[in-house]
Design a protein that fits this description.
CATH class: Mainly Beta
Subcellular location: Cytoplasm; Nucleus
Binding site for Ni(2+): 86, 88, 92, 132
Organism: Galerina marginata (strain CBS 339.88)
GO molecular function: acireductone dioxygenase (Ni2+-requiring) activity; acireductone dioxygenase [iron(II)-requiring] activity; iron ion binding; nickel cation binding
Number of domains: 1
Shape: globular
Family: Belongs to the acireductone dioxygenase (ARD) family.
Structural class: alpha+beta
CATH superfamily: Jelly Rolls
Number of strands: 11
Length: 180
């Protein structure tokens, strides 16, 4: 996984949006935001992903194929939905099996976007309460395993005054040393 600051220039969300020169983001910054990641080679990944799932309490999983072929007529609508800034009340865990894409997370307290370029073998944990979004890159295809701590659910709460005071958001902010 490659992490860098998003350039915020207008244009296709599927482009890299990287500064020139690139402004890389360190593991220490991601750790401070509680964003976790591992690289687990796809070939023979099952025992390593299973061990990590057991260690972190992930009880359920499924596969998602975000592509025109995999999603059919809802593809364009879903891509727009995924790219709306939102948070979840649960961790978002993705292990990339094929293809590639971008997770963007808000750095706190600067509110800058950090782009996480993911590819096969990357396992990313986006913490509950962090504002983020997702998009494919120009290849328009990613197949990922979604892991869940409980029953599979994916409820996005778009950024608003209401989500700013959501208990999961407040807890996240406190966990990264922001807020009361």
């Amino acid at each position: 996984m490659r992490a860098y600051y998003y350039d915020n220039l207008p244009g296709d969300q599927r482009l890299p949006h990287d500064y020139v020169p690139s402004r890389l983001v360190s593991k220490e910054i991601l750790d401070a935001l509680n964003v976790k990641y591992w690289v687990i080679p796809v070939e023979g990944h099952e025992p390593k992903v299973d061990a990590l799932a057991k260690e972190r309490g992930y009880k359920n999983r499924d596969l998602i194929n975000v592509s025109k072929d995999g999603m059919g007529e809802i593809y364009e609508e879903k891509i727009k939905t995924f790219f709306q800034e939102h948070m979840h009340e649960d961790e978002e865990i993705r292990y990339v099996l094929s293809g590639s894409g971008f997770f963007d997370v808000r750095e706190t307290p600067t509110d800058q976007w950090i782009r996480l370029a993911v590819e096969p073998g990357d396992l990313v944990v986006i913490p509950a309460g962090i504002y983020h979004r997702f998009t494919l890159d120009e290849a328009n295809n990613i197949k990922a395993m979604r892991l869940f701590q409980d029953e599979p659910k994916w409820i996005p709460y778009n950024r608003s005054e209401e989500t700013d005071v959501n208990p999961h958001r407040v807890q996240y902010l406190q966990s990264v040393g922001v807020g009361a």
